[in-house]
Amino acid sequence: MRGLVVSINGILQYYGMKATNMTISFRHSAGFGKRIEYYIVGLMLKQGLDVYLPVVDDDAIDAVVKRPDGNFVEVQIKARSKECLFGDAALFASLRHDYRPNYWFVFYAERMDTMWIMSSREFIDIAHQNKQGKNSGSRTVWFNGKNTRTLTEHVKPQFVKFVATDFNRIMRENPDF
To answer: Which helix (H) or strand (E) holds 22?
Structure first.
């Protein structure tokens, strides 16, 4: 058994990991996005939305919501952990996305406990698109600013209009206008 432990520790050391931290940090990072997806879906259900979850997430759809008018919209949920670097609480980078009709984004920053909702079109309009390099074509949106004197993060003024405490936009607004 000792030989097995030495081999595992050797492999971990080769990849720059430590066995003592691996389980917690890996489990946190690997499962964080899925946990927040379920958290957001739980809030949707609590507010009375009809939410359907795809079995496989291979088309950037985390939830499908049936609106009161009977139409369905697709929702992509993105989240940032409170463990990210100071100043990056609401930095969502390297997102591959082209315009999609009937499509909403829900962004959530855990440290700021803030949610932003925007349509596919709004996201494309406000996100920076990388023009070159390995992430060419991907988009980035940075919802927060920071105050290094007070060590606080805040919503940038141009993004306040997207801050949401409920899902009324998804339920009532047309994402394509």
So the answer is: helix 19-46
pLDDT in tens, 18-67: 544 444 455 566 688 899 999 999 999 999 999 999 998 789 999 999 99
DSSP state, 150? T
Amino acid at residue number 85: L
CATH code assigned at 69: 3.40.1350.10
On whether residue 23 sits in a domain, the answer given is no
Query: Rounded CA gap, 157 and 167, in Å?
Result: 21
Q: What is the pLDDT of residue 29?
A: 66
Q: Which domain holds residue 89?
A: 32-172
Q: For residue 58, tell me if it sits in a domain.
A: yes
Task: Report DSSP state, residue 137.
Answer: T
Residue 15 lies in a domain: no
Q: In terms of pTM, does the model score above 0.85?
A: no
Q: Which residues 6+ apart lie within 8 Å of 155 measured at CB?
A: 90, 112, 114, 143, 144, 145, 163
Tally the domains of the chain: 1
Domain membership flag for residue 108: yes
CB of 176 closer than 8 Å to CB of 102: yes
Contact assessment for residue 95 and residue 152, using Cβ atoms and an 8 Å cutoff:
no
- Cβ neighbours for 15, distance < 8 A, ≥ 6 positions apart: none
Whole-angstrom Cα distance, residue 137 to residue 129?
6
